[in-house]
Amino acid sequence: MGKLQVWFLTALLVLTGCREAATLTLANGEQRQLADYRGEWLVVNYFAEWCAPCLRELPLLNELGEAAGPAVLAVSFDAMPAQALQALQQRLAIKVPVVAGLAGPWPFELPRVLPTTFVLDPDGRLAERHQGELRAEDIARWRDSYWGTRDQGMVNP
Question: Is the backbone peptide bond immediately before 115 cis, with ω within 30 degrees of 0?
Fold first, then answer.
């Protein structure tokens, strides 16, 4: 192997190892990475307090988050200071972790429609995108297709 090939392979390995991680910041300031959810399904829902369909689907997301199944994150579409976001979480009775922001290479782009929900597979790849208000039938279909069966006590359609 020539010097140029060795240099190229070394550079490639270094760059691969230095790739920015997909991270998130929770409303309480805690930092996490997408890699923390490896091995489990992840539902990422974008919401805003001014979005009526977002508010209507929150009970479904809370129920999904409490059931045996995927991890669920609610991402605030609007940039808010941590204290205001925590107060919003309490006021809206959001039981799933609330995310102040995402950074790095997530497998989806910032939504242009609210609400928008992304389902990520256990390897962190995008399995599905849902634009608009979630219904119990949508979650039941995901449950049946992705992470479990109807008898696991999750959302009833």
Answer: yes
